Amino acid sequence: MNDASATPGAATGTDDPRELADIPSVEVVSRAAVMLMSAAAERLGLADPDPDTSPHRDLDEARRLITALAGLLTASLEYLGPHAAPLRDGLQSLQRAFREASAFPDEPGQGPGEKYTGPVY
Questions:
Q1: What is the DSSP code (8-state) at residue 66?
Q2: Does the pLDDT value for residue 18 go beyond 90?
Q3: Helix (H, G, I), strand (E, B) or coil at 111
Q4: Cα-Cα end-to-end distance for the chain
Q5: CA 55: distance to chain centroid?
Q6: Euclidean distance between CA atoms 13 and 4, whole angstroms
Q7: Dist. CA 33–CA 99, nearest whole Å
Q8: Which residue from 45, 86, 84 is spatially nearest to 62, judged by alpha carbons?
């Protein structure tokens, strides 16, 4: 047994001592979605005062994260209940921010995750 597996919360990457099997699926999916959203926002430079000069800005990485988020939300939509609307709003905000940050914006329907969500304007 390695040290990580003996630490409470190691399986989920949190300090939460609950076992992964005890966490409802909607919470697991929501946590994954929030992590993808946060990472995408960082890669868009949104955590910095001036996103255009952020040392963390990487639109290629942001595209991947936003697309993964769109796929996760689309696949889990029916199970998310009241969590679905705020997560979808967050996704659309990231998609719009990506379009604004791009020097050559994708055509509607071709942006990150739009093959799952449809065009975002």
A1: H
A2: no
A3: coil
A4: 50
A5: 20
A6: 10
A7: 20
A8: 45
Please, are residues 109 and 118 in contact by the beta-carbon 8 Å criterion? yes
Residue 4 binned pLDDT confidence (cut-offs 50, 70, 90): very low
Dmax (CA) of the chain: 50
User: How many residues does this entry show for the chain?
Assistant: 121
pLDDT, tens digit, 9 for 90 and up, residues 69-119: 999 999 999 999 999 999 999 999 999 999 999 999 999 999 999 999 999
- 68 closest CA partner among 109, 100, 106, 39: 39
Place of tokens 């990231």: 94
Take residue 90 and report the two structure tokens written for it.
């967050």
